[in-house]
Amino acid sequence: MSYPENYTVIGAGHGGKAMAAHLALMGKRVTLFNRTYTNIQMMAARGGIELESYEHGPRGFGALEKVTSEMSEALAEAQVIMVVVPSSAHADIAEKCAPHLKDGQIVVLNPGRTLGAIEFKHTLEQNGCTADIIIAEAETFLYASRSDGPAQARIFRIKEAVPLAALPASHTRTVLDAIKDVYPQFIDGTDVLHTGLNNMGAIFHPALTILNAGRIESTRGDFQFYIEGATPSVAGVLEAIDRERVTVAAAIGIRARTSMEWLQIAYNVTGTNLYEAIHNQIGYFGIKAPGTLNHRYIFEDVPMSLVPIASIGKQFGVSVRAMDSIIRLACVIHQTDYWRRGRTLEKLGIDGLSGGELIRYAQNGVKPY
Question: Among the options 14, 22, 90, 205, which is catalytic?
Fold first, then answer.
């Protein structure tokens, strides 16, 4: 089998720079796109990105084929398009991609958050895109990384296994086979409902941030986010939101992992409750809180993670009072209507579908109307 050689990475933030540099070091021809050219100007001038990494991780100068802020140029030769931007930008990226996508291209959202692939596909359709492409999403981002400078990136860790699903799910194997030479870490995530409803950021990020709002503002985030922020009462709220998420998934016929199960799978930690399990995760020690409430844990995770899960719950009669309370507090704090801005089923064009119809749509990509 011949693997794709031409990759385009959309987004030059912490994750996009790390992915672009790593792909280049693995021998791929990489184009890096960013909407604001001044943010990538230094990488264009140097012709690539200097990558540092953990002890046995990838490192060196990742030479890029092209650095551009023109979407037509970015997609012209691409075989695989890795979208590495906040999920709140997925619809905008889809709109910009729509006129330039070509038959046979693969688009992967890294990650999709909740219903990201469905939003991307719906946006393409609304913008008249008829290209025969495959859209897929990862359950979480593969790298723990940061930008160290205008043309530098650093990888702290690469996850060993990340579920990935295509829309429709029948194309998942095609995507996994296409990218397994560079990313064998991606595994079959069943379908995009499973990857979306197993979105642990929805549980751990918004509520923990909002319930520590006063402390974040008074200390500018100078405390251990998970260890000091996840007090017994706060962890109890996280457990309530998690129960609602799992119940929402069950309402449409999906068995979602609990946050306790995820902590055991991802970090091999347990506890009698979520408070104990979080405090048994040594990797959380030393992680500081956000320095401001103007943070993606609210402006991304609320509309793109909590809102779509709560939207499914409301359609199928599941109580999502804890989840809705966090959404409403986020709206007040940011003076923004996140229900209006978020991924509701109506906005995604899948309102009114039964649980079985939603699953069949995720499996075969065809709506019943």
Answer: 205
